[in-house]
Each structure stands twice: as structure tokens, then as C-alpha cells.
Design a protein that fits this description.
34% of the residues lie in helices and 30% in strands. The relative contact order is 0.17. It has a single domain (7-147), classed as Gcn5-related N-acetyltransferase (GNAT) (Aminopeptidase). The chain is α+β, with helices and mostly antiparallel strands and 149 residues long. Helix 1 crosses helix 2 (39-53). InterPro entries: Acyl_CoA_acyltransferase (IPR016181), GNAT_dom (IPR000182), MshD_Acetyltransferase (IPR050276). It comes from Neobacillus novalis. Residues 6-149 form the N-acetyltransferase domain. One of its GO terms (molecular function) is acyltransferase activity, transferring groups other than amino-acyl groups.
Length: 149
Amino acid sequence: MNHHKFTITQYNPKYAEQTVEMWRDSKEQAIGQKEIHSFENHLYFLKSILPEQFQIDLALIDEKVVGMIAYNEREISQLYIHNDYQGIGIGKTLLGKAKEQSSGRLTLYTFEVNEKAQRFYEKHGFKKIGSGHENEENLPDIQYEWMSK
């Protein structure tokens, strides 16, 4: 995989469709099941619901959305990287931004089936603190926590 230069930018609605496409593909790949929400609902969630509580940042390569994160000072709500651009530091960079702007502690949930995500979070200092959170996919999940030193 050649290392593309990516840039991190604040979410802009002009990237909404691309972001949702990438998010859905990445999530479906990660959990091995089809996205349960329609594209329209997902788009509405990104445009109207998510920004109320979370800062959203995107990773771009030549105006193409290759990653997204939604976070506030206490939790990470979403972190998805384009399937073709994983392993080049995008996730680590986005996570770094969330850590910098955090209160010193961040929690997140990840699906139990998503072992790749668990390895990623554990590598970056997150520890398992719980499981069994209710989610719409009805999949078992794991809660992680990171604390600054």
C-alpha cells in the first residue's frame, strides 16, 4: 500500500454523501452484516444528529473521504477508515486529535466481532472496561477506556 498524504479537516456538509458511503462500507466490512439504516437516514444522522454532541473530523486524500471520527471530550462515537486506506496511520492520527482534545479520559464501544478494531484500540492505549451495551445491531459489544498518563 503506498503511503498517500492525507489531510485532516473539520467535517463539511459537502462531504456528507462520501462520508456516509465510506462509513457504511467500512462498517459492513468490519461487522460482516449489512447496514440496517437506509442511506437517507444515515445521511440525516450525520448532518443533523451527530454534530449536536460531537466534533466530526474527516481524513481526505485529494478531496476523497478516507476516514471519519466523531468525538467529544469524554467519548468517541464513531471512527471509521476507508477499507482501502487502513494501516497507513489515518486512524491513529484521528484518534490522536480526540485524545488531545479530551478531558484526559475517553470511552468508546466497539463490536465484539470487530477484532481488528479491538487490536487497534488496545495498541493505542485503550483498555476493556465492560461489555453488553445495547445497540441497534443487536451485536455484543465491548466498552473501552483510555486515560492520559
